[in-house]
Amino acid sequence: MALTREQMAQRIAKEIQNGFYVNLGIGIPTLVANYIPTNITVTLQSENGLLGIGRFPYQGEEDPDLINAGKETITTNIGASFFSSAESFAMIRAGKVDLSILGAMEVSETGDIANWIIPGKVVKGMGGAMDLLTGTKRVIVVMQHKSKDGKSKILKKCTLPLSASNAVHLIVTELAVLEITEKGMHLLERAPGVSIDEIVKATECGLIIGDNVPEMKI
After folding, report:
1. Interior CA angle at 5 toward 176 and 204, to 5°?
2. Where does 52-190 have alpha helices with state H?
3. 28-42: pLDDT as tens digits
4. Which terminus of the chain has fewer CB atoms gathered within 10 Å of its CB, N or C?
């Protein structure tokens, strides 16, 4: 069975380690904030100028002036700090962020990523993707395995304009967890009830498949 958006966020939260500074992109990545284990200390960074993002607010406690980079209302943890976007991007470009969790439209087998524009369609801008992809120590992409018309979004080579080359380390989709290595794309885990054959058929590029591919534990 394919994972829900929330389950994908839960699986990604398992990749976060104690002491990490983490940037959450727009969309599914923002849901990760709700699933970070309580026994570790993690600082969430938002490129619009905030360190110390908390969970999403419950209904009735929203503050319209307190938002993340995707303009969603958020909460802050004790010790949170606010600063300019210039200082925020200085942190990112200086390599101070341990992990970025981003969405994507396409990812290639070598870790190239396209996530900022589809030619011919109107977009609001590239945002901070380029800086995060090149300035962060580790990048995890969360995305749907296939497009709405059924085409694979995990490709031998990206067809859309790139945001960065060789930048992605791990991909989590509704079907699988895939690690990008020097030898190729390695199938690490599969969603509960999803067969290896289903994942292979949904993936354009070749996959390195071990003797035993475990189901994800959510």
Report:
1. 35
2. 85-93, 129-135
3. 999 999 999 999 999
4. N
H or E element that contains 108: strand 106-108
8-state DSSP, 112: -
Quick check: helix, strand or coil at residue 158?
coil
What's the token pair of residue 139? 């990048």
Distance CA 134, CA 178 (A): 20
Question: In DSSP terms, which residues pair with 101 in a beta bridge?
Answer: 24, 140
89's tokens: 């991007």
pTM here is: 0.94
Per-residue b or e along 12-27, where b marks 16 or more CB atoms closer than 10 Å to that residue's CB:
bbebbeeebbbbbbbb
Q: Is 47 part of the annotated catalytic residue set? A: yes
Q: Phi/psi of residue 88, each to 5°?
A: -60, -45
Q: Domains along the chain?
A: 5-209 (3.40.1080.10)
Work out the burial of residue 170: count CB atoms within 10 Å of its CB; fewer than 13 is exposed, 13-18 middle, 19 or more buried: buried
Give φ, ψ of 76 to 5 degrees: -120, 150
- Torsion-angle region of 157 (φ positive above 0: left; ψ -120 to 50: alpha; else: beta): beta
Q: Which of 47, 106, 109, 189 is catalytic?
A: 47
pLDDT single digits (tens) 108-146: 999 999 998 877 776 666 678 999 999 999 999 999 999
State how beta strands 76-82 and 50-53 pair: antiparallel
> Which amino acid belongs to residue 30?
T
